[in-house]
Inverse folding.
């Protein structure tokens, strides 16, 4: 999937709220950098954490309700 498509899907998941999307990505990147396992099949060594977070949001695996859970 192309980057533009991933971002468009992620925006749909946040109700086209770019501010909310950026906060979700930031929060998820913090979790990933602290050792959380990716919820999508992407290698941490070959992909940027922000790309992984965006993909997780686009696929509906991370949402505002789940971001507060520490065990994602």
């Amino acid at each position: 999937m192309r980057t533009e498509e991933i971002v468009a899907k992620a925006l749909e998941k946040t109700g086209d709220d770019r501010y909310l999307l950026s906060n979700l990505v930031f929060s998820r990147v913090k979790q990933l950098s602290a050792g959380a396992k990716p919820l999508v099949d992407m290698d941490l060594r070959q992909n940027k954490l922000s790309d992984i977070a965006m993909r997780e949001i686009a696929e509906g695996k991370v949402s505002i309700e789940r971001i507060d859970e520490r065990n994602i």
Q: What stands out?
A: Residues 3-67 form a domain with the Eukaryotic RPB6 RNA polymerase subunit fold (CATH 3.90.940.10). The chain has one domain: 3-67.
